[in-house]
Amino acid sequence: MASPLTAGFCELVFNSNEAPEGVVPVLQVLSVKKINAPGASGTDRYRLILSDGKYFIQGMIATQLNHHVENKEVDKHVLIKLVNYVTNAVQGRKLVIILNLEIVPWNGEKIGSPQNLEQQQGTSGGASPAVAAAPAPKQEPGAGAGAGGAANRGQFGGKGGGAAAKGGRAGGKQDVGPLYPIEGLSPYQNKWTIKARVTQKSDIKHYSNQRGEGKLFSCTFMDETGEIRATGFNETVDNFYNLLEEGKVFFVSRARINIAKKQFSNVNNEYEIMFENQTEIEPCDDESVPQVKYNFKGIGDLGELQKDELCDVIGVVKEVHELGSVTSKATNKPFAKRDIQLVDQSGQAVRLTLWGKQAETFSADDQPVIAFKGVKVGDFGGRSLSMFSSATMSVDPDIPEAHSLRGWFDAEGRNKQFTAYTNSSVNSGGAGAAQGARPAEIKTIGQAKDEQLGMSDKTDYFTTAATIAFVKQETFSYPACANPDGCNKKVVDEGSGWRCEKCDRSWDAPIHRYILSMNVMDHTGQFWITAFNDTAEQLMEISANDLMKLKEEGNDNAFGSYFQKATGKTYSFQMMAKQDSFNDQPRVRYQCRRVAAPDYAAESAHLTQLISQISV
DNA sequence: CCCCCCCC
Predict the structure, then answer these.
(1) More confident residue, A45 or A372
(2) Are A281 and A240 in contact (CB under 8 A)?
(3) Distances from the Cα of A458 to the Cαs of A110, A276, A377, A454, in angstroms?
(4) Residues A221, A227, A230: CA angle, nearest 5 degrees
(5) Can you supply one Gene Ontology CC term for this chain's record (predicted)?
(6) Are A420 and A446 in a shared domain?
(7) Is the pLDDT of residue A230 over 60?
(8) How many other CB atoms are found less than 10 A from the CB of residue A141?
(9) Protein CA at A274 to nucleotide C1' at B2, angstroms
(10) Are A567 and A470 in contact (CB under 8 A)?
């Protein structure tokens, strides 16, 4: 019986730099494996073992085809036709990257006894004997590029050479290599061209370090197969910064591919491009390259997202605040900052913070619609948004969501009252809580310690449901300045009066304010927390000044009863964890900023989520 | 070859 598989394909890929054009191989999947290196966006990657009946070879499936694996269409012993693919050499191993495929009907039986072509190289740990027939593979890096390219010319873009036609380079100077999908780029090949849209471009940043001074910029390219970040230094900034416009399509070739530094970007690619002096970039007017796709989260639904998640948001700029400046605690550098307020049909308003040059140059007094991609969700004031380096914003974009918002705002939104995200759900507890508002992430005391919240340079915020086990009676307050303007600074007893350094005056008597030290616990542990005046007063149900009066009058029963009443009560504590030092040892101070009746609904939702994580 | 994504 004739095999339905494309005989000889594996050997061709393995040994040749020139895979024939127009070959659309049919191969059998021997295994599918999820790779334990998901992209920054959390997208899974799948590796396939592909057989032509005689040999097998490794394959990768482009992420946009993952659904075929996830719904089991592509599975062990399934036959697939590689409608679009490239080949690739990675560390001497050949890899087929599948960009498009069709399922070929088959009865599910394994065909032949395929052998591992890589055996003789000793790169793989399989047990089958070496394949004597296969000639030694080419070892030099980039050997796969030619093969991939050849396959490419006919196939990438797919539409009968349409891509190739449009891909005709204006200059035709150097040998810039074949058109490649972004998905197929790797450091082991140097002859390639991508045709991709710039979806994001940074400012030019200047830096100076031990190696000297320099400048750089970065941008993100996107095509139908994926996205990749690119960075240029010094001369390449002069060469390309102005040329590369956000939203436009370019050919890029003769650049270096490096391993991506993931900690600095959320672009979903293992690699990134580095522009070099010989890099060639040319504009291209092919509009078929995809545009930025948005996945908008309604402003009223931001409470569904976790802190630090990235999301896309579109809204009308209701307010633009003054330009401000903050000093980073980590670097001591000042940063320009500007808050704007966004609203949408949900009736909810959210604050979004712009940074640096974007903050300085932002001007929009005509309440435009702005679409944001990849902004970071914060939990300050319930929910807030912050621009991220790789975030983009598009003013009055020509998309349906923007037109609909514009129409709504001009017709009715303009005169509407909006609900701001707030932390006001605290104190009200339960049903009366402000809609959409959600306090900081829920953590048990054990989690707060395990995750070392407050141990880094930054302050961490969290909410914890816990019970007051003990309230310290000895020192519960400090004598504060009596100035009615609310100075609240500590004052010193000078005998003749209580002196405030800040106000430069003395008072007959101080006003006592709380610094209440409490031990609180939940099922995972206990910690000492401090509550200041307003919060402590709420817990103690008496002002610090009145409590001090009871103490001074020697009314021990009444005095003690307030502490007793406070003990044993359960609250939702809004906590702030911050590092400071005590006897030169770093330690975390837990400050309670607010308390509320325990939010049982939120707590059980949180527990349900934890349970579902366990039971996967 | 950079790189902090900040602050209340």
Answers:
(1) A372
(2) yes
(3) 57, 37, 17, 7
(4) 45
(5) chromosome, telomeric region
(6) no
(7) yes
(8) 16
(9) 12
(10) yes
Q: By residue range, what is the domain housing residue A328?
A: 299-425
Q: Which residues touch strand B (CB under 7 A)?
A: A 205, 207, 209, 211, 214, 216, 218, 231, 233-234, 258, 261, 264-265, 274, 276, 324, 326, 328-331, 333, 335, 337, 353, 355-356, 376, 378, 380-381, 384, 386-389, 458-459
Gap from A76 CA to B2 C1', Å: 45
Cβ of A2: how many Cβ atoms within 10 Å? 5
Residues A127 and A182 placed together within one structural domain of the fold: no
**Number of domains comprising chain A:** 4
Q: Residue A614 domain-assigned?
A: no
Mean pLDDT (chain A) is: 81
Name the strand (E) or helix (H) holding A531.
Answer: strand A525-532
Of the candidates A36, A555, A504, the one whose C-alpha atom is nearest the C-alpha of residue A46 is: A36
A26, A147, A311, A609 from A178: Cα distances, Å: 24, 10, 35, 48
Alpha helices in A196-290 (DSSP H): 235-240
Residue A221 lies in a domain: yes
Domain closes at, from A85, A109, A133: A133
Q: Residues A360, A462: one domain?
A: no
Interatomic distance A234 CA / B1 C1' (Å): 9
Q: Verify that A129 and A39 share a domain, yes or no.
A: yes
C-alpha–C-alpha distance, residues A567 and A469, integer Å: 6
Residue nearest to nucleotide B3 (CA to C1'): A264
Say if CB A384 and CB A352 are below 8 A apart: yes
Distance of alpha carbon A117 from alpha carbon A110, whole angstroms: 18
CA distances from A427 to A535, A593, A599 (A): 10, 12, 10
* Nearest protein residue to nucleotide B8, judged by CA and C1' positions: A380
Residues A99 and A170 in one domain: no
Nucleotide nearest to A381 in CA–C1' terms: B8
Q: Using the Cα atoms of residue A408, residue A409, residue A411 and residue A416 in order, give the sign of their dihedral.
A: positive
Q: What is the pLDDT of residue A20?
A: 57
b/e string for A63-74 if b means 16 or more Cβ within 10 A?
bebbebbeeeeb
Q: Quick check: is A1 in a domain?
A: no
Note whether A600 and A508 are same-domain residues: yes
Nucleotide nearest to A272 (CA to C1'): B2
Same domain, A85 and A232: no
Nearest to A418 by CA among A297, A319, A337, A313: A319
Domain identity same for A338 and A318: yes
Last residue of a domain, one of A425, A453, A480: A425
Residues A178-224 have pLDDT tens digits of 788 998 898 877 789 999 999 989 888 888 887 888 899 999 999 98
Q: What tokens appear for A334 in the block?
A: 């000042």
C1' nearest to CA of A214: which nucleotide?
B1
Phi, psi of A66 (to 5 degrees): -55, -30
Enumerate the β-bridge partners of residue A26: A81
Tell me which of A254-263, A365-374, A381-390, A599-608 is least confident.
A599-608
Beta strand A498-500 with A392-395: parallel, antiparallel or unpaired?
A: unpaired
Cα(A556)–Cα(A590) distance, integer angstroms: 29
The CATH number assigned to the domain holding A391 equals 2.40.50.140
In a domain, A119, yes or no: yes
